[in-house]
Amino acid sequence: MKMKNKAAAGLLALLMAASLTACGSSSSGSTTTAAGETTAAGGTTAAAAETTTSAETTTAADTTAAAETTVSASSAAQTTGAATAGDLKTVEAGELHMATNAAFPPYESVGDDGNFEGIDVEIAQKIADKLGLKLVIDDMDFGSVVTSVQTGKEDIAMAGLTVTDERKQNIDFTDSYATAVQVIIVPENSDIKTVDDLQGKKIGCQEGTTGYLYCSDTPENGGYGEENVTAFPSGANAVQALLTGKIDCVVIDNEPAKQYVAENEGLKILDTEFVSEEYAIGVSKDNNGLLTAVNNALDELKADGTVQSIIDKYIKAD
Ligand code: ARG
Fold this sequence. Notes:
Layout: H1 5-24, E1 39-40, H2 64-68, E2 95-100, E3 103-104, E4 108-110, E5 116-117, H3 119-131, E6 134-139, H4 142-150, E7 156-157, H5 165-168, E8 172-187, E9 203-206, H6 210-216, E10 229-232, H7 235-243, E11 249-253, H8 254-263, E12 267-269, E13 276-283, H9 288-303, H10 306-314
Parallel strand pairs: 1-6, 2-6, 2-7, 9-10, 9-11
Antiparallel strand pairs: 3-4, 4-5, 7-13, 8-11, 8-12, 8-13
Helix pairs in contact: 3-9
The structure holds arginine.
């Protein structure tokens, strides 16, 4: 193991603790998806037909009647002490614009029905509800997610976005809501067995991701050299290149990796320790009010089990 060994081990322990928690609270049977309430930029909020389930009704203000008529986000606001819409400065009054790259299941993707879906989408919807704002999802290249928030074009960055010191110089982060590990996908018959075998191999990553940044770094810094790493627009594109033998492996976050391997014959994830990371929501450094409000809402959703039940809905304990 070459990189960040100690941090990786410590965070791995954290991750294991998190997955143990996940085992304890299953949310199967939930039929409501936040994706149904969410529309692309410029659209209107759909009055989604909803069925309330116990998992969805953990917040006091959420009566069945209110849940069935989610017409305007403000009428469904479940503000509990956090700042309300009126106090908050957002790109568009009354709206919460989320910058994402919806090619990263199970955190964000476009479902068969054309709606955005995933863990980040549902958590963002709950946060918007609490703040009395209408969630608007703006899908873009992953490389634009941080800069769009930094330059004030978007309110929040939520994209399975790893907290890094470099990104912290450009945007602020909320508390973390998930942990992840970078993993290596290889063909079943690959001679790559551990991270140490990556030397001199052709590595594929999604552009702008931490996986790309680690791998393309110099060998002195624990990387494999820029010349050995190809950046693809999405993880799925990298996996296609792997399937056709253009590259030898793909380095990407563990949950999308699991989905790609499940969807494609002949691939496996190496059982080798790699870098551990924390996902959090990015907010502009110039909008402390929004940062605090989003963080408070997120903390409440973590404390009452909502975040865990959303994660459990998409990630089944294995
Ligand atoms: N966690 C990695 C990072 O922050 C990858 C995130 C990719 N997310 C996406 N929506 N494509 O760099």
